[in-house]
Amino acid sequence: MQTYTEKQLVDLIDKSTKNFSGPLDTLESAIGYLMIGRKLGWRAMFLIHSQSTIRNYEKILGINSKEFFPENGQWAKKSVAYLAVQKVSNYWKAVKGEIPGIRSNEALKN
Fold first, then answer.
1. Residue 40's closest CA among 64, 65, 75?
2. 108 pLDDT exceeds 50?
3. Residue 43: which of 2, 104, 108 has the closest Cα?
4. Where in the chain are the domains?
5. Do 103 and 36 touch, CB atoms closer than 8 A?
6. Torsion of CA 47, 74, 68, 66, to 10 degrees
7. What torsion, rounded to 10 degrees, do the Cα atoms 52, 66, 43, 94 define?
8. Mind listing the pLDDT tens digit for each residue in 40-92?
């Protein structure tokens, strides 16, 4: 994972915005994903978002989440789903939704 300066992040956002075609709320969500993901890390973000949403955001931003974000960011413990998955043995089963009560929207209901 490479560390990006504020200017590089702004340049990435500007480039993504310039090249984007589609609903602006999707672009806005992708930029939010970028900004939060750099602090939470890709493991937490993979629990929060579906695989198709992540692929869409990566395409919009021109990034690979695993290469762009840290595995576990400094704010990862703010994610209820991330904390819940620490108690299971298979992270990828949790990401796929094969372990009940782990995905963030499910964890918040309990």
1. 75
2. no
3. 104
4. 6-109
5. no
6. -40
7. 50
8. 999 999 988 999 999 999 999 999 999 999 999 999 888 877 777 777 767 77
